[in-house]
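Record format v2
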Amino acid sequence: MKTYLDCIPCFFKQALFAARAAVDDEARIKAVLDKIGMLVSEIPLNSSPPETGREVYRTVREVTGVDDPFRDLKAKSIDKALALYPTLKHLLGEAKDPLKTAVRLAIAGNVIDFGANPDFQLEQDIQEVLQKEPAINHYQAFKEKLARAQDIVYLGDNAGETVFDRLLIETMGKPVTFVVRESPIINDATEEDAISSGLDNVAAIVSSGCDAPGTVLGGCSELFLAHFNKADLIISKGQGNYETLSQEKRPVFFLLKAKCPVIARDLGVKVGDVVIKDALPSK
Amino acid sequence: MKTYLDCIPCFFKQALFAARAAVDDEARIKAVLDKIGMLVSEIPLNSSPPETGREVYRTVREVTGVDDPFRDLKAKSIDKALALYPTLKHLLGEAKDPLKTAVRLAIAGNVIDFGANPDFQLEQDIQEVLQKEPAINHYQAFKEKLARAQDIVYLGDNAGETVFDRLLIETMGKPVTFVVRESPIINDATEEDAISSGLDNVAAIVSSGCDAPGTVLGGCSELFLAHFNKADLIISKGQGNYETLSQEKRPVFFLLKAKCPVIARDLGVKVGDVVIKDALPSK
């Protein structure tokens, strides 16, 4: 997905949120925004938003001197999600179609943006996503392709959401490579976060090699690209991965909730809609 | 009111909205945002948001070559409001306390941001403001001070809203000087808009001399300042006038709906709240 002009005000909003998480010093936070201002003319609209997001967060780190402003929030998010794990595991045990419920739960995990909205109504959001009919619903195709898949790559998104990913991977019962970001960026899951979520028990954890809040293939490691290129099923969680991979001709399923108007428009859905999208639907 | 850091992303949002109203050329619109980016480091946080707003819209005008991107929208707004005028006049004729209803209607006019949201539910918004208890309600003080006032200055805000201002001025039945912006800025009312709304029949129309989307006293004309300084009652409509005058020790009543979180926080109310605020409340 390209960068839309509407993304530009949003970069400033995100920078402000991250700078405030990093320091409590108005002049320093303003200095972050000043520097992002200088970046605007260099934003190429034909790149994806996470490519600029990477520069935005790099600026936050440089000006504030804080490498991982969301470290505490991520740890709390994982703890919160782990506390729910037994209840959700039980829910899956009782489900008529456990895979379907696990897919929905994995999307519910994405709904919960621990970074932007730490005070969400967790249980309520889960109920909503479990009940809401996805606006794009390629679940049947997902189920069929998953049954035949031998080599699955699962692209993670936020810390905390990772516990929900773990539930889906456990339900799928297939060998999975779980992909994390190379270094801390917003509240995206790193290797450390994946391990804290217990993902190392159910998947091989691999870094994408990329430090953008998405999967920018041009900036990924050879190791990751080897996995990506030979996988027969790729599960892509969240907006950032969609933004960077929506044009790729690979067997990707995008699982996400459309949380911003730009992505909703790009997908042809409404803000708040749940999406299970096959990147290569059969004719 | 000072400029909060949260105003900075919003300046970009407003610039984008205005640039899109001006031209249909993505590269040109991007050029507007690039130039606003360069301005960020020059924004003094101790100035009011409309002072930066003026620079933002100046940039839009310079880069797009369009002096008044909201001209058509303003004309439509006034037409829509004039079409409602007879119904609202009838409503006032039947009201128990016509002044109270007229004050509420004038705030309803401010609710309707013709610029940002041209597809509002006009009748529904009016009903809501008529029924909703203001979060800050100095109506009684307003009524008493109005009864004694000899020299009233009324600071207008948006085009269209001006028709609602006319209804309040007719209901007050006192000589009023109605103040407009010196030149087009967003959808703020200019002299032309005030005349189209019929305000010239019920008030003397005076320009503030200021081309910011508020009343920046340091940039106002001598003529306006003479009016402002001798008035014994000043009615200030909308957010922009509040932002520029909230610190002044003058007999001002602020009538507005808090439409943004920054102003709501500054006032100590919630977004969506209706406000009738006496700047110099009695002890």
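The CA atoms of residues 4 and 20 of chain B lie 25 Å apart.
Chain B has a mean pLDDT of 93.
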